[in-house]
């Protein structure tokens, strides 16, 4: 590569900047990890290229000439500009955008309140959330990762279980005061709020050996609407433990029947494209989700133990 007819060699400029800042050839050499004589050679080469003296030698001390002081100011600004540009480019290199497809209920009732923690732990990752009831086409690049609720059966995709779901009836304090729910049979006098997943109430029915055929039902589509109806006292919802935990802690919902029901494989899953390594940010997001879910579960158990004392 040809050298510039105008710009001096970079190593000579670095040596000059260090000597001018430190006013010492020895200390400049220590900083640059070269010998003092090499520093002196670079500065002398630079002075010859510029046709002017940059330093005045006074015995064992040195001082910048007027030309040297002006040049040091320009070179220092140039190096600072290069450093700023380098930091900016490195930040772009580590910056990652991660598009996450997820159910609106999971976003609203669990994830959003914890996003500040993720941003603090992974400031280089920009999350783009796409709350939707539709299943994003990961193979077509509609999202980098999906958080889905089900039993992990999505052919052609890589599914990793985040949390197995536990199910229990929940209702508002106002409704509980009007119509107690002290034992499983009491559920038959309530309206059951159901989403597009009737299997949840069926799992609870099997667990309690209680036939719910005669129970009144209100069919709703989105689990967000189910929870809102429960909060408004319109009936009893089948509570997904992960999503109702905050409502239970605040007392907005009650779970008088504390016995959980489960269904084989039912839970929240991280779903990724079946081929390729995927984005590193996706693996970081899954790791964070697992840690947060585990910590939330530990906190919930601690509260239950405290209540039981």
TrEMBL record:
Family the entry assigns: Belongs to the LysR transcriptional regulatory family.
Gene3D superfamilies xref list: Periplasmic binding protein-like II, Winged helix-like DNA-binding domain superfamily/Winged helix DNA-binding domain
InterPro entries: LysR-type_TF_proteobact-type, LysR_HTH_N, LysR_subst-bd, WH-like_DNA-bd_sf, WH_DNA-bd_sf
Keywords: DNA-binding, Transcription, Transcription regulation
Annotated source species: Bosea lupini
Annotated protein name in UniProt: LysR family transcriptional regulator, glycine cleavage system transcriptional activator
CDD domains (alphabetical): PBP2_GcdR_TrpI_HvrB_AmpR_like
HTH lysR-type domain: residues covered: 8-65
One GO MF term: DNA-binding transcription factor activity
GO terms (BP aspect): DNA-templated transcription
């Amino acid at each position: 590569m040809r050298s510039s007819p105008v710009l001096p060699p970079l190593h000579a400029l670095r040596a000059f900047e260090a000597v001018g800042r430190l006013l010492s050839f020895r200390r400049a050499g220590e900083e640059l990890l070269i010998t003092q004589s090499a520093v002196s050679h670079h500065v002398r080469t630079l002075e010859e290229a510029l046709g002017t003296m940059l330093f005045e030698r006074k015995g064992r001390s040195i001082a910048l000439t007027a030309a040297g002081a002006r040049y040091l100011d320009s070179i220092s600004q140039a190096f600072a500009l290069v450093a700023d540009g380098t930091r900016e480019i490195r930040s772009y290199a580590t910056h990652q955008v991660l598009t996450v497809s997820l159910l609106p209920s999971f976003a609203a009732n669990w994830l959003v309140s914890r996003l500040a923690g993720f941003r603090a732990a992974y400031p280089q990752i920009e999350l783009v959330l796409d709350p939707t009831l539709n299943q994003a086409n990961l193979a077509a690049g509609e999202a980098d990762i999906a958080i889905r609720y089900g039993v992990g059966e999505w052919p052609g995709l890589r599914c990793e279980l985040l949390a197995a779901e536990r199910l229990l009836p929940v209702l508002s304090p106002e409704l509980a005061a009007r119509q107690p729910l002290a034992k499983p049979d009491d559920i038959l006098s309530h309206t059951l709020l159901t989403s597009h997943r009737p299997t949840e109430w069926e799992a609870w029915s099997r667990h309690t050996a209680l036939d719910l055929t005669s129970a009144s039902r209100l069919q709703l589509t989105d689990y967000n609407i189910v929870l809102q109806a429960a909060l408004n006292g319109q009936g009893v919802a089948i509570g997904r433990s992960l999503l109702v935990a905050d409502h239970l802690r605040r007392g907005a919902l009650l779970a008088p029947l504390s016995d959980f029901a489960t269904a084989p494989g039912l839970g929240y899953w991280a779903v990724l494209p079946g081929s390729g390594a995927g984005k590193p940010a996706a693996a970081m997001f899954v790791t964070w989700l697992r840690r947060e879910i585990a910590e939330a579960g530990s906190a919930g158990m601690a509260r239950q133990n405290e209540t039981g004392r």
